[in-house]
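Cross-posted from the bioinformatics board.
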Amino acid sequence: MVEVRNTERELHRLRVRLAVALLVVLMCFGMLGARFWWLQIYRYADFHAQAEDNRIALVPAPPSRGLVFDRNGVLLAENVSAYTLELTPMRNARLEETIDALSQIVEITPRERRRFRRLLQDSRRSESVPLKVKLTDEEVARLAVQRFRFPGVEIRARLFRTYPLGDTAAHVLGYIGRISPDDVAKLDDQERLAQYAGSTHIGKVGIEQSYEQVLHGRVGADEVEVSAGGRVVRTLSRTPPVPGSNLILSIDIRLQKLVEELFGDRRGALVAIEPATGDVLAFVSRPGYDPNLFVDGIDPQTWQSLNEDPDHPLLNRPLRGAYPPGSTYKPFMALAALTTGARTPADTISDPGYFLLGTHRFRDSKPSGHGTVDLRKSIVVSSDTYYYKLAYEMGVDRIHDFMKPWGFGQLTGIDLENESTGVLPSTQWKMRRYRQKWFPGETPSIGIGQGYNAFTILQLAHATATLANNGIVMKPHLVQSIEDPISHERQRTVPKESYRIPLAPAHLKLVQEAMAEVNRVGTGRLAFAGARYVAAGKTGTAQVIGIRQNERYDARRVSERHRDHSLFVAFAPLENPKIAVAVIVENGGFGAQAAAPIVRKVFDYHLLGLLPKDLDEDLLPKVQDEAELRDIPEDIEPETIAVPEAAKP
Amino acid sequence: MTLNESPSLWRRVRPHLFVFDPVLTVALAMLVVLSFVTMQSAALDYDGRMADHARNLLVAFAVLWLAANMPLQWMQRVAPPAYLLGLALLVAVALFGDVAKGARRWLDLGFTRIQPSELMKIAMPMMLAWWFQKREGAQGWADFVVAGVLLAVPLALIARQPDLGTAILVFAAGFYVIYLAGLGWKVLLGGFLGALASMPVLWSFLHEYQRQRVLMMIDPSSDPLGRGFHVIQSTIAVGSGGLWGKGWMQGTQAHLEFIPERTTDFIFAVFSEEFGMVGSLVLLSIYLLIIGRGLVIAANGANVFARLLGGAITLVLFTYAFVNVGMVSGILPVVGVPLPMMSYGGTAMLTLGIGMGLLMSIARQRRLIQT
C-alpha cells in the first residue's frame, strides 16, 4: 500500500512538473509570437524598406572619354582597356599584410607601394584604390584563383587613358588624374558632380583640363539587383552613358615632334600658327615630360624630381613664360610708327652707335653705329638707335595703344587654362603696378623690346601671325574641331576672325618686305641661305642680366644660365603666308645663332615636306589611314570581373 | 483459430508496423512537408542539397521506426553502456580529437569521423532516467548529487571543446530529467539565482567568439558588416516577410545571399520571409502540438524511466525550436542549434529520429500495459 501511495505521489508530482513545463513552453512560444508581431507587423515597413535597399542598387555607368587626334588623324590620347588590382581600405583592416601577401603572387614594386600610400590619403575609406595597374593576363589569372583569401581585394577591368606618343606635345595634351577633394569641390560648385558618379579621373592640365566638359560625356546608370556580396545578379533597367566627344587638334604632330627633336637638350619654346585660321600647328615647350606618369597617380619621388628640376619640365613655357621680345619687337614698332604717323618710310636718322638722353647713353648693339638709317634699313640691320629715338618720341602710351590689339600683354584666349598675361607697359600700368609715374628715361628701351616688356612666345607668335595675315586677328587655338563620337560630325572651335587692325596696305608691305630682307641679306641670311621660298623674319636677343654702362657683354664670361635668350619670329611664304612662328631658345645667345636655324627647318618641312638630313624619319609619328583610325570600339566600359565575394564572417 | 496453427506473417509483423503514435506522426508529417517546401527555396543554389535532405529524412524515419520498436526494458539496459561509451569517446576527443573551425569536436575513427557530443544528447537523459528508475521509492537528496555529477562530467568535456550549442542542449536534456524527478523548488530557485550571480565568472571562461555572439545579440548594429551581419540580415528577412510573407521562392533576402547558413541554422529566416507571420505561427503550432503530445505521453509513461525520458525528450525538442527561432529573430544569441526537422544536417536529424522513436515507443508501451 505504501509502495502504491508513493508511486501515486510521485506520479502526481511529475504531472505537476510537466504542467509547469508546459506553462514555460507556452510562455516562451508566446514570446516568439510577440517577437513576430513586433518584427512582421509593427516594424514591417522598416524592414521591408531595408530589404529593398539591400536588393536594389543604382550603379553609375561612367561614360568613356573622348579621344584626341592631331589635324591629320594621328591618335594622341586614347582609352586602353586593362586590368587593375584594387584594394578597398574599409573592407580590409590589415592593408600592409595584405599587400605583402599579394606581392607573393604578383610583383609589387616599392614605387607602386609609395603611390598606393599617397592615393590612400586622398581617397575615402569605401573607395577602392589601385595598387597595381595594367596587369598582364598571367597576373590576372594568378590573382583570380587566390583572390578569395583577401577581403576587399578586387581585380577590375578599367579603361586607361594613354598617351601613345609619350612626352610629345605633353604641354598641349596635359593629362588626367584621379579626382581630388579639390576637384570634387569645384565640380560641386559647377553642379556637375553627379556627372562624375563612377568616374575616377578628371582632366588636370592641358586640353584634357580645358575641354573636360566636352571630353567627359554624360554618365549613365544601371538599376541592378545585388547580392549580399555586392555581386550584380541582374540588371533591372539601364540608362546608357553618352561617350565624350573627340577632339581634332590643329597641331600637326609630325611638325611638333620635329621641333622637339630640333631643340634637343636645349630649353625653350616654339609656337607655329597658320595665319589665315589661327590653327596652332606646333606648340612646343622644352624640356617636356611623360603625361602617362600622372594618370594613375605619380609616386612622390618622381614628382619631386620633376618639380625640382632646374629646367622646369612641368612649366608650360609658351603659355606661362614671359620674356622680353628683344629685337623681334621692331617690325611691330615700325608699323606703329607708320600707322600713327610718327615716321614716314623716307625719314632717316643718323646712327652713331648710341642714343643720348640727357647724360645717359643708350647703346646700340653695334658700337660703331649703322650710319644713315631709314625705316626699312632699321629692320634689316636691326638698328637699336632708330628705335630708341622712335620710342622716345612716340611715348609709352601711344606704343601701348597701338600694340594692345595685337595681343601683346593680353590674354590671347587660347584654349588652355592659366595663360599668362605678360606685361605691355604704359603709364597707367606703372601707376597701378608700382604706384609710380612713368619716367621718360624708361621709354627708349621699350622700343627695342627690352625694359618692362614681357610677352609670352604664344603672344609673339600670335602677333606675327596677325602681321602675316595683314592685321586680321584669328584667335589661336589648339583644338581645331570637336567631333561627335557617334555621327562623326565636326564643329570648328574658331570659325571666324575676331577683328581687324586698321592698317595701310603700303605700310604692311614695307614691313613685311623688310623682314624678308632680313632673311636675304640681314641677320637671318645664314639660316635661310638657299631657301626655295621667301621667308620673312626678325631675330631677337633678350638680355637675362643687366649690363652696366661702359661694360661689354661677353657670352664666354657669363655662366650658361645668364646668357641671352635667342629669339626669332618669322612667317613664310611672303605672299600668302602658310605659317608664322615665334621661338625662343633659352640662353641660346644671339637670335640668328640658335633660334633661326630651327625655324628654317620648320618651314622646310611645313612648306616643302623636307626633313633635316641628320634626322631619322622613324622618330616622327606615322599618319595612318582614316578608316583604320575609326576602328575603335565605343562600348567598352569599366566593370568588375564577376569573381564571387569571399564568404562573410 | 487453432492453437497449433502458427500465427500468420501479418499477425507477427503487424505490431511492429503500427508503432506510430498518430498525433506525433501527423505533426511530424506536416513538418516534413514544410521542410521540403522551405528547403526547395533555400537550397536553390546548392546542387544536390535537396536530395541529401531527403536522404537524411529517410534515414531519420528508419531510425525512428527502429527506436519506436524498442521495448522499454531494452532501453533501460542500453542506457548505462551508451552513457559510458559516450563519456569514453568524449575523453578520446579531448585527447586525440580533430580541430575544425577552432574547436576540437571530431573524432577520427579511420573510416569515419564522429562527433561524440551528439550521442550524449540521447545518452544523457537515458542515463539519468535510468538512475532515478533504479532509485525509485528510495529517492533522496544524495541521488540528485549523483545525477548532478553524471551530468557535469560530460558537460565539462563538451564545453571545453568548445561547443556552446551542444553543451546547452546536453545540459538541458540532463536538467529536464532532474527537474522532472523532483528536484526541490527551493534548490531550483537557488540554482537559478546562483547561475545569475556567477554570470560574470562564467563570462571569463567564455571564448572570445562566444562573448562576441552574446554582445552581438545585445547590439547587432555595432558591427553591421562583421559579426552582427547574421542577426541583422535574418531579422530583416523575418521582418520584411510581414503578415503573409513574400511568397514561396520570392524571398529576396534568402535568394540574394543576405542570409548566411540559410539551409542550416538560419532556415527559419527563409521560411518566415516567404510565409510571413501566419506561416511562422503555423510552424510554432506544429511544434506546440508535438510538445503537448509528448508531455501527455510522458505523464502516462509506464514507469519512472519512461516518464522522465519522455518528458526530457519532449522538452529538449522544445529547447531546439525555441533557441533556434529566438536566435534567428534576434532575441537570443547565435548558438549552433538547428531547427528540428527543418534544418539541413544528417546528425541532428538522426538524433531527432531516435528521440521521436523513443517517445513513440514509450507511448505505445504504456498503451500495451493498459490493455
